[in-house]
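EI: anyone free to look at a 183-residue chain?
SC: sure, send it
EI:
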Amino acid sequence: MTTLDNRPNTALLVVDVQNGVVAGAPGRDDVVANIGSLVEKARREEVPVVWVQHSSEALAPGSGAWQIVPELSPAAAEPLVPKTYGDSFEATSLESVLSDLGVGRLVVVGAQTDACVRSTLHGAFVRGYDALLVSDAHTTGDLTAWGAPPPEQVIAHTNLYWVHQTAPGRTAGTVATTDVDFA
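SC: here you go
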């Protein structure tokens, strides 16, 4: 249903599953395992897997914190999009990568829920993509010291409000890892 012409394909978009991003995040191991199972499923079904990797002062390129977690390994042929803003589309090659792949529907996983995942979901949706969030394959850090709700509430709230996103000609929603259908 995407509003993007001639873009019938789906891609799995893996956002910022990096050592320094998910270290200490609630459910980190389960989330990474769920992402890993989706990566394998996408590969089996010949669905593109697109990786996004954030750089910042705390995530300096080449540093241990910047590296994708050791449980996940982008394949040599899978696009890896570097970024410096929350929205994975801003000042990156993501749009051209997805266009070249004929992708109009994204299945989104990763971290952090209340920053890069949320920004990327909204960025995709306003650009005309169908955007599906995998409810048990994203996580975030604890920002309660700065007044944020506990991470589990941030994750639950994001899952709740993304179910109800609507726009003409586009679909959104959430789905559990076991129920992801790339077709």
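EI: The chain is about 30% helix and 20% strand.
SC: 👍
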